[in-house]
Amino acid sequence: MPPKTLTVGLVQQACGDDRAANLAASIAGIRDLASHGAQLILLQELHAGPYFCQTENPELFDLAESIPGPTTEELGAVARELGVVLVASLFERRAPGLYHNTAVVLERDGGIAGRYRKMHIPDDPGYYEKFYFAPGDLGFTPIDTSVGRLGVLVCWDQWYPEAARLMALAGAELLLYPTAIGWNPADDDEERQRQWDAWATVQRAHAIANGLPVVVCNRIGFEADPSGQTAGIQFWGTSFVVGPQGEWLASAPTDEPATLAVELDLGRSEQVRRLWPYLRDRRIDAYGGLPQRYLDR
């Protein structure tokens, strides 16, 4: 099979309260990546503003926007100008009182190729997302684009092998994770390392188990908890790309804005799957317990 190459790009940045400044930084990164040949560019989770889910504040629903809306229009114009496919991450206002954490894929012509609504919604200290986001209802459905079939997932989804597997079974050619994850500043260095290792390992495992490249874009910087109840979040950056055997292809720093452009050979997935045929050997007749919350015995 002849190789199908695709240059993917990542924009890693810090975000503040100024939406225009945040988008300007994202767009500057997009332009830089396009100048280096990127055809598909991934932005981090909720890149238009700070990570507002550290507290439960009804006034923050005013940050949400419709899709299509201002951000998709602005980024769509950039996608059209540069001829690139963009994956953006937005706080979606679907209807009064109904909101989602949504990734939008913008085609080279600036139109919306599709969207994915985050399926797994956390509710932990500093990550009170269930207050803001309804669980996604579009399923684990890849989005077809001019550069390939994209398996787009969002942050907390990255811990679930079922999500990655279902995207792979539906024909995704690569998995993309816009992300916002960081340390509690009160954690010691050993605990921080354990958390980071777990985060990187589980996503490399998705690449290995499905024979697909995985692209992850995380934010950087310290964001204080407005309520003062926690120590805030130090986002750990380290956006990265791995190949279909989990091999490291590129990674960004933990604490600096960065752009990464990485050429992927999507044809390698076919070769890897021929030698490591996990999909062939799956015991689909024996997995009946997976839809259960827990198998009580």
Which ranges are low-confidence, i.e. pLDDT below 50, for 5 or more consecutive residues?
Answer: none
Q: Give the number of DSSP strands.
A: 17
**Sheet/helix structural class:** alpha+beta
Order of helices and strands: EHEHEEEEEEEHEEHEEEEEEHH
Range of helix content = 10-25%
Give, in spatial order, the strands making up the sheet with the most strands.
Answer: 5-4-3-2-1-17
| Total domain modules | 1
| Radius of gyration (Å) | 18 Å
Q: In CATH, what is the class?
A: Alpha Beta
> Termini, distance in Å?
48 Å
Keywords: Hydrolase
InterPro entries: Aliph_Amidase/BUP, C-N_Hydrolase, C-N_Hydrolase_sf
Pfam families: CN_hydrolase (PF00795)
Protein name: Carbon-nitrogen hydrolase
Structural overview:
- With 297 residues, this protein is α+β, with helices and mostly antiparallel strands.
- The protein has a single domain, classed as 4-Layer Sandwich (Nitrilase/N-carbamoyl-D-aminoacid amidohydrolase).
- The chain is 25% helix and 28% strand.
- The protein has six helices and 17 strands.
- The strands form four sheets. Strands 5-4-3-2-1-17 form a six-stranded mixed β-sheet.
- Helix 1 links the parallel strand 1 (5-12) and strand 2.
- Helix 1 runs parallel beside helix 2 (70-82) and helix 3 runs parallel beside helix 4.
- The longest helix has 22 residues, at 189-210.
- It starts with a strand and ends in a 16-residue tail after the last helix.
- The mean pLDDT is 97.
- It comes from Candidatus Competibacter phosphatis.
- Keywords: Hydrolase.
- Pfam families: CN_hydrolase.
- GO terms for molecular function: hydrolase activity.
- InterPro entries: Aliph_Amidase/BUP, C-N_Hydrolase, C-N_Hydrolase_sf.
